[in-house]
Amino acid sequence: xxxxxxxxPIEIFAADEAGRRRHWSDEDKVRIVEESLRGYRQGSATARxxxxxxxxxxxxxxxxxxxxxxxxxxxxxxxxxxxxxxPASTExxxxxxxxxxxxxxxxxxxxxxxxxxxxPSHLAALLAVLDxx
Length: 133
Known about the structure:
There is one protein chain. Strand 1 and strand 2 form a beta hairpin. Helix 1 runs antiparallel to helix 2 and helix 2 crosses helix 3. The longest helix has 13 residues. The chain contains 5 helices and 2 strands. It is mainly alpha-helical. It is rod-shaped and about 110 Å long. The protein has a two-stranded antiparallel ribbon with strand order 1-2. About 4% of the residues have low confidence. The N and C termini lie far apart (77 Å). Helices cover 36% and strands 8% of the residues.
């Protein structure tokens, strides 16, 4: 008589592996997103490498682009230091004063350098484009 054995395709997972949720810190999310943006078609490969879904990585990427991932504060305020103006001189302004610039770092990590003579309305229009909220 022949003895038949049945092989079942059932795999048993330990209780530690099944159904666990991982909590990623903002630093980890930023590191993973930046890694996924380094080259062509890196999103899927990066998601597989870290064991996350492609849709979750897409959500993190969207938050990263909007400056919401790892933002310093919920309000998005950045410190500003105002210094007193130098004493007025009777000489004509130098060429260097015409070329004076201000560098601004936005909450989404982008930097912009603007001339000091830029009007507030033009600056507001630039900020609306570069850092929409």
